[in-house]
Every structure is written in C-alpha cells, then in structure tokens.
Amino acid sequence: MYSRYTSFSLSGQSYINTEQFEGRDWAAFSMYTSAVVHELLVPDTVVNLVTAGEKRMYCGNRVIHLRQGDILVIPAGSLVSSEILHAGEGFSSLNVIIPDEVITTTPVRYSSFVSGEMQLLPGGNCQALLKGVLSALLNKSGVNLHPREWQSRIWRELRSHSALAAMLQRLSQSRMDPLMEQLSTGISDIREMEDLARAGCMSVATLKRRFRALYGCGPMEWIWKMRLQRAGLLLRSGQEPVRDIAYSTGFSDVSHFYRLFRKQYGVTPVAWRMNKGCDQGLGA
C-alpha cells in the first residue's frame, strides 16, 4: 500500500541530493538506474521536474506519461501511484515542496473548478525556476536563494495558472490528513460511507461536502477511482493474475471489477495490461 512521503528517500534510488529547511526536506534531486514502482501518500504540495528518462503517473482515470522537461504538480493529500520506465536509460527528477504557509499567503479566487488531482504544467517560467533550484542544489554555489524565497517564486508562477492555484489553496485550507492516513493503508477495506466518515473523524454530511468541493465527486466514487488507479498500476507493473489484483484492490466480484475498469479506462484489464490504454502526455 501507500508509504508516507515524509522524506525524498525512496526505494530504488541510485543517487539522491537533498536540502533541508527548518529540519525537513524541501528539495531533492534523485536518480534511478532500474525500473521501480512507488505508491505514496504525499502530504504536502510537490512540484516535480523530470530531468531525464520517462515515468507513468496514475491519476484517477488518466495515466500521465512524463518525459524530460515535463512539470507535474502533485497536490497535498494525494495518493500517488508511479512507475519509472526504461531502466536502461535511467531516470532523474527534481522535487520541490511548496508548503501550506506559502500557498495560503495570498488568496486566489477563480470561478472555474479544477479537481484536486495531479496536473501537468507547461514549461515557461516555472521550468526556469526549477532549473535554478537544481543548479543551486547541485552546485552548492552561484544562484543561492533562501529556500522560502525559491518556494515563494515558484508559487507566484503557479498563481498565474489561476484555477490550479485556487485548487491547491482549497486543499491546503481543508486538509483531511487523518482520513488520508487511514486510506493509505486501508483503502481496500472501506465498504460504507459511514466507515469513511469514521476514519476521517467527521460526519457523513461533512465528508460529502468536502469531497464534492475538493474532488468534484462523492466520497465512495473517489474511493472506487483510487482502487482502479491501483489496479491499473499493478496490471502494468506486475504479473499477478487479474483476479488476484481485483481482490487485492478491494473488489469482491471480478465481473464488477471488469465493468468498472472498462468504464474508467475504456479497455478491459487484459487489454490494459498489454499497454493498449491511452496515456496522457503533455498537451494531450
């Protein structure tokens, strides 16, 4: 199940260079020389720049295929499934945390709704800022700004994407950390909305309202989407039988799993395993 992303050190890394601020990691450059799969609970907003190689990020009913130069924004509280590809070519990326205290400094108002899921960004100024962080991180000299200044500059650039910035503020101001902690290890066990509300220490009415505001769907619909997201990752990255994957991700009826999987991804689990589902890349 999902591991809490409390530090940037993850399994499979061949190299990592991290920087700390006030006792916690705020930026890291990491490299991988072999294929690896990660399932993570990401408690804080993270901006990720791919510097080499390719990986898949599973995001609800989408698979985002990231390549060199792509930027991905991972909102606070996300349950993330990722698969680093093409072991022979290697993979590297920069991750920068944008903490709540930076995100909530300036209110962002925007009428359009963006669901609280991972979002691709065009390059532009944000890419230049991230490359500046990378240069300071690796060279330990030159363009050295205070970590909070780097984070604030990146946030100012994100604010130019008003709908995205408004979504990130909604998540920062309405966090559901206890619930996400419970789901990171027990998402396959939730059967009723009352179970979910109990895990989050809130009423069913509050649970419904928060999920609708943050994700644009009901709590149980979101749960099924996350279960299918895990199944999509396991089908492509492992060799377990489809039936076993269905059971391990919380489905008690394999035919029900097939129906929901096809509805979410547009193909059967078997076709998906053969890599016939569509990946969403930058600009798709």
TrEMBL record:
Matching PANTHER family, A to Z? HTH-TYPE TRANSCRIPTIONAL ACTIVATOR RHAS-RELATED
Q: Which SMART domains match?
A: HTH_ARAC
Q: Which UniProt keyword terms apply here?
A: DNA-binding, Transcription, Transcription regulation
Output this protein's name: AraC-type DNA-binding protein
The chain positions of domain HTH araC/xylS-type read 177-275
Asked if Magnesium is a keyword of the record, the answer is no
> Cross-referenced Gene3D superfamilies, in alphabetical order?
Homeodomain-like
Citing just one GO molecular function, the answer is: DNA-binding transcription factor activity
